[in-house]
Each structure stands twice: as C-alpha cells, then as structure tokens.
Design brief:
The complex is a heterodimer.
Chain A: E1 5-9, H1 14-26, E2 31-34, H2 42-47, E3 56-59, E4 62-65, H3 67-77, H4 89-115, H5 118-139, H6 152-158, H7 164-171, H8 175-178, H9 180-190, H10 193-198, H11 202-217
Parallel strand pairs in A: 1-2
Antiparallel strand pairs in A: 1-3, 3-4
Helix pairs in contact in A: 1-3, 1-6, 4-5, 4-6, 4-7, 7-11
Chain B: E1 5-9, H1 14-26, E2 31-34, H2 42-47, E3 56-59, E4 62-65, H3 67-77, H4 89-115, H5 118-139, H6 152-156, H7 158-171, H8 182-193, H9 195-199, H10 204-216
Parallel strand pairs in B: 1-2
Antiparallel strand pairs in B: 1-3, 3-4
The chains are: A alpha+beta, B alpha+beta.
Chain lengths: ~220, ~220
C-alpha cells in the first residue's frame, strides 16, 4: 500500500522542521526522506521543479511546496485537532504577517552572520539584532507569538532556535543576555513534545554551519 | 457597527491595486488614501511601522499589511462574496504557491530584466523567461489561473498582466512575446478586459508617462 504522507527534507533545515512540527502537532504518520542537497533526488526535482528545494510534502502522490504553505495545508486538511492558525480572521492575518516577516528577514540576514566577513558581516550583525528587537517587541509579555497558545508564527520562528547557538557564535551576541524574552519563549516552546522531538541539537547544527562556512570562506 | 475600510496605496503600485481589486470583487466600499512615498504620512507609519510600505488595509481601525496577507483577510471576512481563494485545501495551497512565486521570483526578475543594466540585466532576462514559462505551462489553455473566473493568482499576477507590458514599452526589453507565450498573452488580454480589473488599473498612457519620467531621471 502506498504511504499516504511523505516528507522530503534535510535534517538541519529550519524550513523542513516547521513541517515536522506541524505533522507532530496533528499526530500524522508520515515517511521521512532525507535529501542530499548536493545531489538532489529525481523525486525532489520532479515534485518541486520550480524551486528544487526542500521541504516538499507529498500527500497521496500530490506535492505541496514552501514550508509555510505546507503548514497551512496541514492545518486545513487535518483540522480536527491542534489548530495552528487562530479562528479569528484578524488574528490569522497577524499570524501570516509575522510568519512572512520571519521568512523575509531572519533567514537571509542570519545566513550573512556565518557566511560573510568584514564590513558585510558587521552590517549583518547590526541588522540581525534589529530583527530580534522587532520580534521581541511583537512577542511582548505574551507566552507565544500567537498569544496564549502556540501557533503559526511560533512554528515559523521556533525552528530557528536550533540555530541559535550557531547564530550567537557567528553573530557575536548572547540571546539569553540581550534578548531574554526570545530566549524564554524558545525554552517554553521546547516544553512541547512536537518541538522537542523535532529540533536537532544546537551543537550539531553549529558543526554543520562550521562546515558550510569552511566551504564558502575557506576557513 | 458601521464597517470602516481604508486602503493606503499609490496609484502606480500593482500591490495596492491588488487590494482594491479584491475589495471591488467583494463589493466592499472603502476609502482610498494616496500616499506620497517620498513623504510618507504619519498615519501610514503608524499603521505599518515594520515595513513602512503600501498597501495597508485598515478595517475598523485595525491595520493589515502585505498585499497577499490582505487578500486572504478580505476573502475570509467576506466568505459569501466572490471567492478569491478556492475552497479545496490542495487548490488553496497551489494558489498560495503561485502568488508567492510571482512576488518572490517573477517580480524581482522582471524588474531586473527591464530596468537593470548590462550583464545582470541579460541574466535576468533569461531568468524571467524561464519563470514566465512556468506560468505559461501552469495556465495551459485555461481562461484564468483561477479557472473560469479570476482568483488570487490572477490578482497577484497583475504585474504580468498589465505592468510588464508598460515596462516593455518604455525600456524596449521584450519578455512576453506571443509566439513564446501564447497562453499568457491571451490571458493578459482577458485580464485587462475584465470589468473589475480594468477599473483598478492605472490609465495606460499615464503609467507609461510616469515610467518614462522615472527612466530619464536616472
């Protein structure tokens, strides 16, 4: 019998982790397939010909691409438990806005922290801290970005917490000291089984990033 | 409670036109405020402190920014009206993917191809052509990306349906030719003819004038 849900992914991808968390939240059984990003499978290229990227969710043979789109799809299809988006349209719009902000800003600037040197690196450090400040402002005193419950914007950002050690090291800052609200929020999210079981160890991610940095910068 | 809907936009922006199109499709009356991007109003900065951009929709004093987020909001708050997104989850995912593809990939490539210079522009022409081909193949011989009626992807693709033609005319760069893109070409003709869409496009000659001025100011 064909497996109903397949996920094409890469262990360190914060985008893939979002999908894994959503699947765990909903209690969905699926087949996980690890991709070698330097030697992408025919299946991946066939299922995501436009971007050729992971994650790709394959549901009954049909592909869904782009992590936040996949998470919304999962939320809409398996709508019997653990809603990830709130029911109020305005709150939904806010959740989508912040997930979009995280997508547009955190990855690209974060990447520059470990992949650049000199002036570009200095600029990235400043920019990244501004982004964290903005996110902390939005979080405020709430337990989660979604308010009282873990939701869409939390899923979008929490996966980056597995990259915090790497980002702190290359960004030369301390999340706990300089952005305590985000630090506390990440710890709170880790108390959820779906998050704790999904996120890889920060040290492992750091070593992976070190390897990428070496290849890019030769050091 | 009286519903108050305000749209902050600029007349040349495909993004703010998307929001107006969606409101018109739903039959929602709104107040429009034209922004001067060189001198943004305190209200705009108050309603969109994060990006400081248009469009912003303000519904009963509550602001929403980012055009695609706004389109979904409009669709969800007016579920009985004209459907912007399909009902089926897989089709919704496809519509979201298409809209994001236009914003993340097509728009930057088209802009660079038409307005960039030298090698960067040549590369962008190649890239934009490849991206438009994805759209061409996705559309097939359907009337609209939404099927028989316009939908979210059509609204998002207003850049391709209208603005691209004006860029091509002003810069001389040719991207969407009929022989390469018969489906997209037919679609763009249908698109600009659509009653609601055409009410929400800037007058072509004025758009071209504006772009010409911008080009010579560089």
């Amino acid at each position: 019998m064909a497996v109903e849900v397949v996920l094409l992914d890469f262990w360190a991808s914060m985008f893939g982790m979002r999908v894994r968390i959503a699947l765990a939240e909903k209690g969905i059984k699926y087949e996980y397939r690890e991709e070698d990003l330097r030697n992408k499978s025919d299946l991946l290229l066939q299922m995501n010909p436009v971007h050729k990227k992971i994650p790709v969710l394959i549901h009954n043979g049909k592909p869904i691409c782009e992590s936040l789109i996949i998470v919304q799809y999962i939320d809409e299809v398996w709508n019997d438990k653990s809603p990830l988006l709130p029911s109020d349209p305005y709150k939904r719009a806010q959740a989508r806005f912040w997930a979009d902000f995280i997508d547009k800003k955190v990855y690209d600037t974060g990447r520059k922290l470990w992949s650049t040197k000199g002036e570009e690196h200095e600029a990235a450090k400043k920019e990244f801290l501004e982004i964290l400040k903005t996110l902390e402002g939005e979080l405020g005193e709430k337990p989660y970005f979604g308010g009282e419950t873990f939701g869409f914007a939390d899923v979008a950002f929490v996966t980056f917490s597995s990259w915090f050690y790497a980002l702190e090291t290359f960004g030369e800052f301390s999340m706990e000291a300089e952005h305590p609200k985000i630090f506390a929020w990440a710890k709170r999210c880790m108390q959820k089984e779906s998050v704790a079981k999904t996120l890889p160890d920060q040290q492992k991610v750091y070593e992976f990033v070190l390897g990428m940095r070496k290849r890019l910068l030769g050091e | 409670m009286v519903e108050e809907v305000v749209v902050f936009g600029v007349w040349v922006s495909p993004y703010s036109r998307r929001v107006e199109t969606a409101l018109r499709l739903k039959g929602v009356p709104y107040k429009y405020i034209e922004e001067d991007l060189g001198n943004k109003s305190p209200l705009l900065l108050k309603y969109n402190p994060i990006h400081e951009k248009v469009p912003v929709l303000v519904h009963n004093g509550n602001p929403i920014a980012e055009s695609l987020v706004i389109l979904e909001y409009i669709d969800e708050t007016c579920p009985q009206g004209f459907p912007i997104l399909p009902k089926d989850p897989y089709e919704r995912a496809t519509a979201r993917f298409g809209s994001k593809f236009i914003d993340d990939k097509c728009m930057p490539a088209i802009t660079q191809a038409c307005w960039g210079e030298g090698e960067a522009s040549d590369k962008a022409v190649e890239e934009a052509t490849e991206l438009l081909m994805f759209m061409e193949n996705e559309l097939k011989e359907n009337r609209f990306f939404g099927g028989e009626r316009i939908g979210m992807v059509d609204i998002a693709a207003n850049i391709v349906g209208f603005w691209l033609g004006t860029f091509e005319q002003v810069t001389g760069v040719e991207l969407m030719t009929r022989d390469k893109f018969p489906n997209l070409t037919n679609w763009s003709i249908e698109f600009v003819r659509n009653n609601v869409i055409k009410e929400n496009l800037p007058p072509r000659e004025e758009m071209i004038s504006y772009l010409r001025k911008k080009r010579s100011a560089r």
